[in-house]
């Protein structure tokens, strides 16, 4: 990923950079909330399939329990200078019911297949509805690169 200096990148360049990071990075911070217990945030490995983020966690984890009650989530890539924030609704798939193409791609990327582990796992799929991206103060204005699930130009 190249930066065009300290100036402001056009939206199309920001979108390209976000898509590149989603395709190549490994970790995402997942923020969930429970109506009675409040917010919860953890890092998870993720896979970008071109339209959704796929993560996997223990079936009884706080993250899995929270998204079953409140599916709205926020995701962030772990860089405080090159910020990427995604918002969407999570959908849970038990490890034995996850679409095979997603599970296989996840296993290839990480060399780990939760479907063969002892104990149940849950795959969490998030199709972003909103994406914001910025590098430093010059890009705070115009940081929205996806609105209502549509990438902006």
TrEMBL record:
Pfam families: PNPOx_N
InterPro entries: F420H2_bilvrd_red/Heme_oxyg, Pyridox_Oxase_N, Split_barrel_FMN-bd
Stretches assigned to the Pyridoxamine 5'-phosphate oxidase N-terminal domain: 19-134
Transmembrane regions listed in the UniProt entry: none
Keyword field contains DNA damage: no
Keyword Nuclease on entry: no
Keywords: Oxidoreductase
Database matches in SUPFAM superfamilies: FMN-binding split barrel
This protein's name: Pyridoxamine 5'-phosphate oxidase family protein
């Amino acid at each position: 990923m190249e930066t065009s200096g300290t100036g402001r990148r056009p939206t199309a360049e920001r979108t390209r950079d976000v898509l590149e990071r989603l395709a190549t990075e490994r970790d995402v911070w997942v923020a969930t909330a429970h109506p009675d217990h409040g917010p919860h945030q953890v890092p998870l490995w993720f896979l970008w399939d071109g339209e959704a983020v796929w993560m996997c966690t223990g079936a009884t984890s706080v993250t899995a329990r929270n998204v079953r009650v409140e599916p709205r989530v926020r995701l962030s890539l772990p860089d405080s200078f090159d910020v990427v924030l995604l918002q969407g609704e999570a959908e849970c798939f038990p490890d034995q019911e996850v679409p095979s193409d997603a599970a296989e791609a996840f296993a290839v990327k990480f060399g780990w297949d939760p479907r063969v582990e002892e104990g149940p796992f849950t795959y969490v799929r998030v199709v972003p509805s909103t994406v914001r991206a910025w590098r430093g103060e010059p890009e705070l204005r115009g940081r929205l690169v996806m609105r209502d699930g549509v990438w902006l130009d």
